[in-house]
């Protein structure tokens, strides 16, 4: 299993500091003519108001390498091939919360260039609006046998995998987050695996968590800056959010160094 990205502070870079500064200096040209590493920034497939305001964030190449983070205690390989992960398969009930359309754009980084990563399996898992994971047992809940808010999709020819979920809630000790895992060959021990987490803008989380059913849990106790995971590269793991009619869309570009 490839773990070459396990030290985010050193290896989680596609571009050097000098290259990044040069890139930022030519951001306008990149936005017009495409990324210098051979791939332009993919357009957001879901329209709406862009909530990420920094100009640099809007033109970062899709093949930027992100930090790998811990899998955590709640990953279970449920093998649920589905794009809408809100439902509970045992009874068809839908986990309530603000809808979130989450799109991954995965690229393979090799020899200083990148190309769409097709045929890779992307798993996501998260807590619900009141901080509960499915199929686990802890001090507060026993949800064993349930499978809500879990599932996977396989990236298409363009390297894209999309999900319909809900904006996550919170539980003590952690900032708001979604776990994800990307594998090119899940059945083989020799396959490549990358595991990390997505984090969210604090101001948007505050707005969402004022609404039911989130507000039944009270105000969250851990912000991004107070979270051990976020402090280890979390700023590079915040997707671009877009407001739409019924909720939000999140777009996350990631480049993987697989050799």
């Amino acid at each position: 299993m490839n773990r070459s990205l396990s030290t985010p502070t050193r290896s989680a870079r596609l571009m050097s500091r000098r290259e990044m500064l040069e890139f930022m200096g030519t951001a306008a040209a990149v936005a017009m003519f495409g990324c210098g590493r051979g791939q332009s920034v993919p357009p957001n497939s879901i329209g709406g108001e862009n909530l990420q305001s920094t100009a640099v964030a809007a033109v970062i190449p899709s093949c930027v390498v992100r930090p790998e983070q811990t899998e955590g205690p709640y990953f279970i390989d449920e093998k649920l091939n589905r794009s809408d992960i809100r439902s509970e398969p045992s009874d068809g009930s839908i986990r309530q919360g603000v809808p979130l359309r989450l799109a991954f754009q995965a690229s393979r980084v090799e020899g200083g260039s990148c190309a769409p990563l097709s045929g890779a399996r992307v798993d996501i898992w998260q807590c619900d609006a009141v901080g509960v994971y499915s199929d686990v047992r802890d001090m507060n809940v026993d949800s064993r046998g349930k499978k809500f808010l879990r599932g996977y999709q396989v990236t298409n020819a363009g390297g894209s995998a999309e999900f319909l979920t809900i904006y996550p809630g919170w539980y003590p000790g952690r900032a708001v987050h979604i776990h994800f895992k990307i594998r090119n060959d899940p059945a083989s021990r020799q396959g490549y695996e990358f595991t990390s987490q997505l984090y969210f803008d604090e101001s948007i989380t505050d707005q969402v968590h004022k609404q039911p059913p989130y507000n039944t849990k009270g105000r969250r106790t851990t912000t991004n800056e107070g979270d051990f995971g976020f402090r280890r590269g979390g700023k590079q793991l915040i997707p671009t959010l877009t407001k739409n009619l019924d909720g939000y869309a999140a777009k996350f570009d990631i480049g993987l160094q697989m050799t």
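Residues 1-61 have pLDDT under 50 and may be disordered. The chain has five helices and ten strands.
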